[in-house]
Amino acid sequence: MAPTALLLLPVPLLLLLGAPGGSIPPPGQVARMARFLSARCVWGSLASLSCRRAPGAGRPFANVFSVSDGGSGVPYMYLTPLEISVQDLQCNPTASMVMTLAETDYCRKHGYDPQSPLCCRVIFSGTVMKVNGSEEAFAKDALFSRHPEMADWPRDHGWYFAKLNITNIWVLDYFGGVKTVTPEEYYSVQPQSQVQKNTDW
Ligand SMILES: *[C@@H]1O[C@H](CO)[C@@H](O)[C@H](O)[C@H]1NC(C)=O
Ligand SMILES: *[C@@H]1O[C@H](CO)[C@@H](O)[C@H](O)[C@H]1NC(C)=O
User: Fold this and answer.
1) Which of 114 and 193 is assigned the larger pLDDT?
2) Residue 14 domain-assigned?
3) Cα dist. 70→10, 13, 103, 157, 172 in Å?
4) Which range among 21-30, 44-53, 115-124 shows the weakest confidence by mean pLDDT?
5) Which atom from ligand 2 is nearest to the alpha carbon of 183?
6) Residue 8 belongs to a domain
7) Which ligand is nearest to the CA of 185?
8) pTM given for the model
9) Domain residues for 82?
10) Closest CA to ligand 1's atom 13
11) In the record, which residues are listed under signal peptide (predicted)?
12) Is residue 13 part of a domain?
């Protein structure tokens, strides 16, 4: 893009260029938007189904997890069996996770309420699985480069690397209702630019 064209862009858009995931996809390119959110968001809210005894047994339970996809589209997490939601996942690994541009400055700078369809979000459904072998090494690099303090989390907590194995994807990127994307469409999106290891927000 020519320097003069850059000057004409609104500031929030300028901030989004060159950051992980490239620039924000236009409305309607929903698979790209889903990958953009996965590349950009540093945390997601994950809902599990509670396996605990009363109160709350069998009910949805929402929590926050730090994520990083390393540019792959796969949300990786660093989990410990001591964590309350992880205990749910050990008895029922199905989960839903949402990532939203409300995590970034984008919605606030545009004046979009977090619940506005213009404050784009992706909702995933799938199962949380431990990762092994070369995928484990990839997950570690993706997570520790983006969340450096993870390397210092208590060694006796039994931390392990996991992913949300995505089976269903919903994207809200504009008015007119939620749109669906298949995992095949999602994983076939070509990254727009090299994903940087460290984000500044
Ligand atoms: C990791 O290995 C275990 C058993 O060795 C297997 O059950 C599990 O599905 C593997 N996870 C992945 C993501 O391949
Ligand atoms: C992982 O997700 C794929 C779809 O992306 C699905 O075909 C597969 O069955 C899932 N595996 C598990 C163990 O849930």
Assistant:
1) 114
2) no
3) 28, 22, 18, 24, 23
4) 21-30
5) 5
6) no
7) 2
8) 0.84
9) 30-191
10) 131
11) 1-21
12) no
